[in-house]
Design goal:
With about 475 residues, this protein is mainly α. It folds into two domains: about 170 residues, no CATH class; about 240 residues, Orthogonal Bundle (Hypothetical protein af1432), CATH 1.10.3210. About 60% of the residues lie in helices and about 0% in strands. The protein contains 21 helices and no strands. The longest helix is centred in the N-terminal third of the chain and has 33 residues. It starts with a helix and ends in a 15-residue tail after the last helix.
Amino acid sequence: MTRLWLAALLALSAAIPAGATFRILAPGGGGVAAPVFPPVSDNWSRSFDAVGDWFRTPEGRSIVVSVDPHLIYLAGIHSDARRTAASPLATRLDPRLAPVLQAIAAKTKDEQRAAVQALAAARAEVAPAAEAAAVAAWEQSKGEAETADMGAFRALTEQLKGASIYGDAARAAYRASKTAFIERAMRSARRAAKDLAPIDWDSGDFGGAEEEAAVAAAPAPELARLLAVNALPPPSFYHAGHWRPAIVPDRRYARLLDKGAEFLGDEDRADSPEKMRVFHARARLLDTIRAKDPSIYAHLMRVGVMAGMIAWRMGYSMDFAQRAAWGARAHDIGKQEDDILAVVNKPGKLTPEERKIMERHTVAGAELIQQDDELDPLSRRVGKRAAIAHHETLDGKGYPYGLTQGKIPMEARITAVADFFDALLENRPYRAGMTIEKALSIMEKQKDKFDPFVWNAFMSLVAPPAPAGSTAPSPAS
């Protein structure tokens, strides 16, 4: 029966009438306010919501990447953007496929693969016209970027995000729209940022005039999460979008992360079948937190870079540095649980009950990692160590177990320092990110909690720039 169903479904994707036309809803004179594509029916909308959610699972991601990687963008976008993506595809798909997509998680692997192949065939057919429509929509709308209603401007950006599945030109149009939206939001929020969370923009090492201008335009902290949500999934773990000015205002920290990402990324590339399998298994796990809260995901990526550099500075091998970087990338994976995430994102002081819920993210993270059958044994072991023990302290006053001294795994000791540091420099909903100097002044008072060897290596990376005439060490030296 399954083979008959599979053959029928593949036939559906191929049996599109030769004379069928794909009608694009051109922007016309509507500019920013005009939709890019015609609206999609509720039936197709529900179908694409279901298939997008399924693509975030290990099974769904594995199949879609093997059939058509362009479709993976459906996993990283919200419902409104998915409806935009669905509109051109719906003109090429048989209506009988809609209920299949709505229940795709319950189908057999053969049926799931057949459904994805039908989507891929439709995407390939409509891609040229859909991509042209997306580019035309942006070109016609960008002149209104400064005066358009922000709601309409954001709606256009969301639609272009959905159109990203159709190719590089469509993705470029989305990035241009997103950049214009962010720049306008930054400018309009600048006055509010000064009132809500003042930053001493004259302190710290912000580099040249162009970088200073970018930092000076940083938005109010509460916009950082909004802007992070609007980002396309990065092509790798180490991506400069995780430390742009809207998220991390200290440009010296951003440059440090740039150098570390380049250094670690060269060694972290998946250049063999086994490394590729490990890389994708780790990526699938981390995608679960990216889908829930992109700002936490960005925090994990930054902490991973810092942890890898600290381990290298401590004299460990590159193999161990990569291991420490991976553990740090997974350390907060437990925050994806809904009750924990609600507490984590709460501005202000936590109640004792909320504190207990928040502290549970360590155990929850270790359990998630343990239950992931696709992780290799080393990834599982290192990830569990960092997740469960990164809030333990040498004085025994940490959580969840109050471990002391040598009982705390080294990966967790390194992650603890990198995590604390990044949390201080990141824009948060309730305060602006600090400069490196301010963060170090806070950490100095609590350094007895940290492993002294980790602390010394960390300080060699982030200490204030050496005086003129001296030579500062390179993060990769």
